[in-house]
Amino acid sequence: MALLTCVHLFRSSRPAHLTRTLQVCRQAARKPPQVRALFPCSNARTACFQTSPKRTTSPLHPGPGPGSGPGSVHFHTSASARALPAPLIWLVIKPLQKLVAIILGRSLRKWWVALPANRRQLMRERTWQRRWHLAAGAGVAMVMAALCLLTHLDESPVTGRTRLLVFSRENYMELAAQTSEMYMEEFAELLVPVTDPRHQVVERVVQHLAQRNKDIPEVSDVTWTVHVVQSPNVNAFVLPNGQVFMFTGMLDTVADVHQLTIILGHEMAHALLGHSAEQASLSHVVDLLSLILLTAIWAVCPRDSLALLGQWVQEKLSQLMFSRPYSRKLEAEADKVGLQLAAKACADVRAGPVFWQQMEIRDQLSGEPTFPEWLSTHPSHRNRFTQLDRLIPEALELRESCVCPALPATDPRAVFSKSVRVLLENAENQGKGGQEGALKHHLPHSPASLPTGLPAALLAQTALPPSPNADKESTDPVPLVASELAVAAPVLAPSEGSQHTVQSTS
């Protein structure tokens, strides 16, 4: 005869409650012994399980053992279904939302046009009579939306800034795993071997940054993996799960290990701050609010052509007023935090402003058209140089507090500014025709004869293993170079027409 064990999930001190529970369980014991289901008792906090006195075999314990004795309870659960990440679902249904709004607005317009004139007048009068009720309903909806947004506020790590997060970091970790697989398939034939000096130097700098900033949970909890892509694009990005993608075009642009450390710190800052989830959250909220305006545009405009024009204007205004300014804000924050990460890694943080000065000059020499900052998702090179230059004193104090080796007395910013000034004076003397050639030939960090010149030089300088203790005087790769290099390492200039904007997709 089967035994019936009743498990009470929460303790109760009332005898009457226990009596009712036992009565229900006795009634359940009359059920056929074949039934092995979990079913609720009379109280929501109590559940009854039917067990058999025979010896059974558990998948975890195939033979006799702790889990397969007389009177033991065996649970069987189905495999958990793995749902798609919420950001991925939103990306899929995002176009459908706009399509539904367009169809709804167009249907309302057609319905209104088909109404007789007297019905339209009657509906206008009824709407005006109930205007206060409609206003109250709109106010309640706005309050509910505001409360919903307030419940999704979060504090940004490191900076402590309050932000809106509709999608959690965990959701984006799942999405990042799928995105990294996609990128690995896309760049499968372009990945530089791990034995290549360029891959090794990026790997050492990334691991050095992670080791020196391991006091930040968002850094120490992630496994950082490096992938170097053979491409002339001046680009680098880090996914939230720690997958680092560095393009060789960026390696050809940086002048020394200090600039490389600052660039990688910037990209790692995007990942640890969760900027991808934050930007997607803002875009999600803006898109939902835009659906109301989009429906109104298609309902009010008398023709489809005007509605399409209104939709285009609405999308551009949304980008200019919300998406792009917010993206520039996140880029500026990543510049600041990335400089702090590089300072703790004992890099020469004064090389950060020099990098953006180099980028500005290269853009001018390449002849690429420049657009106003308000049309871009990234701050201009000049503004980034100005911001980083303003943050240098604070970064130097942080670097000194991390017991880093002393920096050279020569400031890379002063060296670069003086070199450019001298070259411009020489170019003026030679005439306008020789200016571009003189700059290309004599510009600091001019092209080297070998594409791997910079990585090989950096690899030679970073031969020492990372220091196990960040609180002691460091002998890590970056501090070693910091004591020996200023900004004199050669670099291969990017080919003309290549992209000269550091893009972040993390």
Describe the structure.
The chain has 17 helices and 8 strands. The strands form 3 sheets. A 3-stranded antiparallel sheet has the order 1-3-2, with helices on one face. A hairpin with a 4-residue loop joins strand 7 and strand 8. The protein is mainly alpha-helical and 506 residues long.
The whole-number mean of residue pLDDT values reads 75
Termini distance? Answer: 62 Å
| Backbone CA Rg | 32 Å
In N-to-C order, the SSE pattern is EHEEHHHEEHHHEEEHHHHHHHHHH
SSE blueprint:
Layout: E1 3-8, H1 15-29, E2 39-40, E3 46-51, H2 86-114, H3 117-129, H4 131-150, E4 153-155, E5 162-164, H5 169-186, H6 197-212, H7 217-220, E6 225-229, E7 236-238, E8 243-247, H8 248-251, H9 257-273, H10 275-300, H11 304-344, H12 351-366, H13 381-401, H14 412-430, H15 435-442, H16 453-461, H17 477-484
Parallel strand pairs: 6-8
Antiparallel strand pairs: 1-3, 2-3, 4-5, 7-8
Helix pairs in contact: 2-10, 6-9, 6-16, 9-11, 9-12, 10-11, 11-13, 12-13, 14-15
Which features does this protein show?
single chain; elongated; 17 helices; 506 residues; disordered N terminus; mainly alpha; 3-stranded mixed beta sheet; 56% helix; 3-stranded antiparallel beta sheet
